[in-house]
Amino acid sequence: MSNFDFWDTYERIVGHDYMCHREITLAYGEVLRRSRTHSVLDLGCGDASVFVRASRGLPVAHYRGVDQSEDAIGRAERHLSLSGDVPFDLVCRDLMGFVENHRGARYTDIVLGYVLHHFSLPEKRKVLHRCRELMESEGTLFLFDVARRAGETSYAAYHERLCREIDGNWDGLSIDERSVVKEHIRQWDFPEGVDETRKLIEEAGFEKVSLRFRDAAEFYVVFAATRG
Ligand SMILES: C[S@@+](CC[C@H](N)C(=O)[O-])C[C@H]1O[C@@H](n2cnc3c(N)ncnc32)[C@H](O)[C@@H]1O
Asked: Does 174 fall in a domain?
């Protein structure tokens, strides 16, 4: 079973900005503007809409998106084709298998967007370690994800807090849609804390790890880091 099969609902979540995609896109645009040429690897790219919006008007040499969902890959294909001139390819497969077996290519920007939390701790370490190996020496990691807040010692505590937020504030979704999202969160989301996420990035060898955004309600986090 895919861990993400409600793309129409997710597009509405993004449209209502319930998961801070507006701030994420701004922060990503800032990172992209810092270097001149880009070869982007977007792991768990979804519909690629964050990249399409953040990279508007910027010279991107190539974009490669990886996602295990055929539905997401189809949407990414449409968004990237419509947006115009960035050469791209899309890979429909599990990202762990992709990073473990990928050889040869190096990327200036690697993006992990709302996907690392689906993995166990050892898997998170492995993914980040491989990301660094797949990166050019001047490269940048851009990571945004869900993250527990200080004192939230279990995944379940985070699940319940986020589910209360969804019930209380995500009124742009129907009751059924909210149920599907909450079920997904309880089954598939394993968010680390902000400090733990930073430590995982540093332990993989990245440098200049900087926190770019944390929402006031402390559900989401954005980090950038250099390969070092
Ligand atoms: C919450 S969406 C995020 C999409 C996009 N990065 C964004 O921020 O809008 C998570 C995406 O990760 C993909 N995904 C989850 N686990 C994956 C895995 N093991 N390998 C590849 N893609 C995965 C899902 O199919 C889904 O498209």
From this structure: no
Number of Cα atoms under 13 Å in the Cβ half of residue 213: 22
Within-domain flag for 197: yes
**Per-residue pLDDT tens digits for 16-43:** 999 999 999 999 999 988 877 789 999 9
Domain limits for position 70: 20-148+193-226
Does residue 3 line the site of ligand 1, with CB under 6 A? yes
Name the token pair of 25: 């896109």
Cβ(92)–Cβ(67) under 8 Å?
yes
State pLDDT tens for residues 140-151: 999 999 999 999
Tokens 């969160």, residue located = 185
Q: From the CA of 166, how far away is ligand 1's center (Å)?
A: 20
Q: Which two tokens stand for residue 6?
A: 């409600």
150, burial (CB in 10 Å: exposed 0-12, middle 13-18, buried 19+) = exposed
Ligand 1 within 6 A of CB of 65: no
Which atom of ligand 1 is the closest one to the Cα of 72? 27
Q: How many domains does the chain have?
A: 1
DSSP of 33-61:
HTSS--EEEEET-TTSHHHHHHTTTS--S
The one-letter amino acid code at 171 reads D
Q: Is the CB of 113 under 6 A from ligand 1?
A: yes
Q: What is the pTM of this model?
A: 0.96
Q: Is the CB of 140 under 6 A from ligand 1?
A: no
Which residues lie below 8 Å from residue 139, measured CB to CB, with a gap of 6+?
106, 107, 108, 109, 110, 226, 227
